[in-house]
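Human: Not sure, check this?
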Amino acid sequence: MNRAGTGPARVLAVSPHLDDAVFSAGGLLTGLAAAGAEVVVLTVFTGSVADPTGFALACQTDKGLPEDADYMALRRAEDDAATAVLGVGGVHLPLLEAPHRGYHSAAALFGPVAAGDEGCPDAVGRALAAFLDARPTGAVDLLLGPQALGDHVDHRHVRTAVDALARDRGLPLARWADTPYVLRAGADTPAGDPRYPTEEELDAKVEACAAYATQLGFQFDGTAAMVRALRALPETFDPPLPAAPV
């Protein structure tokens, strides 16, 4: 129980990319932290690659960044700022995003698993297990991760790994509806129950999301559109969250 005696005390949110957990569940995360829970956002695919080429390079230059920028270092700094706003911890694993693992186009990210990438869920699972085993505060009592709406391969791999971790260790699990994919035309209806953040949680969430400056134009068509979209969107979790988590 947290210090209020109303919910989990130790929460781990496993985010595929540097923004997914905050875009999708930032209201819940800041609410849990405010209630006294230890909340950690662990992001899986955050490793830098020197001198990227091809599609991997285009993923940064199409956002207006120069070729010599360390794109992932910029994104890690954005995530540090966002998690600070929410009052939660942040951990960055050094695994590489899909454009550095044999996915050479935007379409490929949402298609079959690339040759040679079949072992990625196991690699993610090992990294998550190592993180939990090294925690001085022990096991978590709520594990959060993606539903993988939108079918991005990194989200699919993380869902597979998180589901296996929850099953193997008997951890309570809730999967968020992936934002912004859930907002897009033709998106699948998210599974689970909606949670409506409070005004205070929404204020913190949109401020935190604004820290992801490299992503807002691409993902939401700008900051103002992000604020409008997220203020109107509940956070949906499957399985439903434990009773009265905050």
In short: The mean pLDDT is 95.
